[in-house]
Structure formats: structure tokens, C-alpha cells
Specification:
By secondary structure, this protein is α+β, with helices and mostly antiparallel strands. It has a single domain, classed as Alpha-Beta Complex (Ribosomal Protein L22, Chain A). The chain has a three-stranded antiparallel sheet with strand order 1-5-2. The chain is flat, with a radius of gyration of 19 Å.
Amino acid sequence: MGKRKRESANLLKEARKEVAFARLNNVPSSPRKMRLVADMVRGMEVFKALGVLHYSNKEAAAKVEKLLRSAIANWEQKNETKAESGQLCVSRIYVDCATMLKRLRTAPQGRGYRIRKRSNHVTIYVDKINNNANEE
């Protein structure tokens, strides 16, 4: 690895020390349903977001809540401190499409209707609140 590449890699590594993330792959629900839940907590303080997700009646909310707890734990592991109320926020959360299972359902008059069983990938980033304000 060249000197310039090593220096830029070290700068990226230092920048990522403050930010922690968690990723959930191949969730068997449609990305559209998951994005509704992701939009509820985007930019929110983490403990407030956990409360919102806990009392939401959407199935995807339970999965995002568990993922958010994992991201908080990753942040605590990186920074070797406990997360306090008002300290962390959900800086970024996004939902990407994953593989699609394609099935056929029988239909009248010898036809077959396609069924697409969608899945998604969710990625959530947790960051300190004052760092997030500096970026904007």
C-alpha cells in the first residue's frame, strides 16, 4: 500500500471511530414497509427512538428496535463508555432492496400469476448529537 493510500485509510479509520453502525441483512418483509419504520426514527435521539419503536404496532418496528440496540452496543464497545440519555442520535438509517423470491400461484384458465416475495437490508448509524449538528 502506498503512502498516500495509507494516509487516507488512516484518516477514514479515525473518522469512523466516533460513528457506530449495525446492519441487518435479508429481512423477509418488503422494503416499502421497512422504510415507513425507518422514517419514524431518522434523526431521533436513540432512547426516544427505542420508545417509539417499542410502542409501534408494525412488525418491522421490532426488528429495527433490536438493530438499534445492537448499534448502541457497538458504539459503547468502540468508545468504552456507556451511552447516556441525550448523547446519541440515529444519524443515518437506510433500507435497501435484497433478493426477491419469485413464485407462481395458480390462476384460472390454466394461467399462473407471479408472486414476488421481497426482502431488504437495513443499515443504521449511531453518532453523538454534537457531531451530527456539525455535519449539517
